[in-house]
């Protein structure tokens, strides 16, 4: 059974810092990995999707990497801003045709002005 | 393009009452899913569907039922509400499994349900 772990559960950084959020998964037979952002009381917004054949994806100040063999992904946020404060969830989709997403519990990020 | 639409956004139920959470997507996605999110527990899959007329159980299906009569709609029914079903419910959809396109999930904005 796939398990996705995100540590730490919470992180507080000063504005302007570059930071890395980590995600690990136990089964390397994945189809893709997706990073989501969730604001308090809101739904999930997809940030980046990395297919299993890819090493990284970039969108603006965000860069996500994938090392399938070691079961790890990182989300890099450059020059963090208070508006980046949210919960970041990592989810992996298994390699089977009807596979579903397995979520980590998320990292709650607070960026202090 | 509305994406995934969930209604209602909030609901309070009394123990033993029934209700249906509605979910509609306009992206012609074959796959649809229902998740519940509890504090500190992450998202757990309740039911999913790979196409109209086909549904299957996820991790936590007890106390829920689903149907998929059309590609667009995937309602979730609670028959006898219990306090343990107090949660935030998310519906999601994704494209048919394949090789070349973006097969990420799209989520609705959620339904916050309280059972008292």
Jot down its keywords:
heterodimer; A: 113 residues; mainly beta; six-stranded mixed beta sheet; B: 116 residues; seven-stranded mixed beta sheet; 11 strands; 0% helix; globular
Give an account of the 3D structure.
The complex is a heterodimer of chains A (113) and B (116). Chain A is mainly beta. Chain A is built from no helices and 11 strands. In chain A, the strands form 2 sheets. In chain A, strands 2, 4, 5, 9, 10 and 11 form a 6-stranded mixed β-sheet that branches. A 5-stranded antiparallel β-sheet of chain A has the order 1-3-8-7-6, with no helix packed on it. In chain A, a hairpin with a 4-residue loop joins strand 7 and strand 8 (72-77). Chain A is globular, with a radius of gyration of 14 Å. The N and C termini of chain A lie far apart (41 Å). The relative contact order of chain A is 0.34. Chain B has 116 residues and is mostly beta strands. Chain B has no helices and 11 strands. Chain B has strands at residues 4-7, 10-13, 19-25, 31-38, 42-51, 54-57, 64-66, 76-78, 87-94, 106-107, 111-115. In chain B, strands 2, 4, 5, 6, 9, 10 and 11 form a 7-stranded mixed β-sheet that branches. Chain B has a 4-stranded antiparallel β-sheet with strand order 1-3-8-7, with no helix packed on it. Chain B is globular. The model of chain B has no long low-confidence stretch (mean pLDDT 91). The A-B interface holds A 31-32, 34, 36, 41-46, 49, 89, 91, 93, 97-101, 103-106 and B 33, 40-43, 45, 48, 50, 56, 58, 90, 92, 97, 102-110, 112.
């Amino acid at each position: 059974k796939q398990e996705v772990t995100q540590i730490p559960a919470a992180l507080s950084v000063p504005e302007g810092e570059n930071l890395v959020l980590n995600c690990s998964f136990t089964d390397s037979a994945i189809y893709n990995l997706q990073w989501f952002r969730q604001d308090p009381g809101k739904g999930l917004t997809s940030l980046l999707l990395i297919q299993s054949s890819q090493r990284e994806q970039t969108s603006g100040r965000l860069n996500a990497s994938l090392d399938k063999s070691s079961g790890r992904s990182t989300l890099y946020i450059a020059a963090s801003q208070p508006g980046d404060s949210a919960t970041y969830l990592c989810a992996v989709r298994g390699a089977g045709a009807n596979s579903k997403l397995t979520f980590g519990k998320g990292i709650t990020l607070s960026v202090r002005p | 393009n509305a994406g995934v639409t969930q209604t209602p956004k909030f609901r309070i139920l009394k123990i033993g009452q029934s209700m249906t959470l509605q979910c509609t997507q306009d992206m012609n996605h074959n796959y649809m899913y229902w998740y519940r999110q509890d504090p500190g527990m992450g998202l757990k899959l309740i039911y999913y569907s790979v196409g109209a007329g086909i549904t299957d159980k996820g991790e936590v299906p007890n106390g829920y039922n689903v149907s998929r009569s059309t590609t667009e709609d995937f309602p979730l029914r609670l028959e006898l509400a219990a306090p343990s079903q107090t949660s935030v419910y998310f519906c999601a959809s994704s494209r048919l499994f394949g090789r070349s396109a973006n097969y990420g999930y799209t989520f609705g904005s959620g339904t916050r349900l309280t059972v008292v």
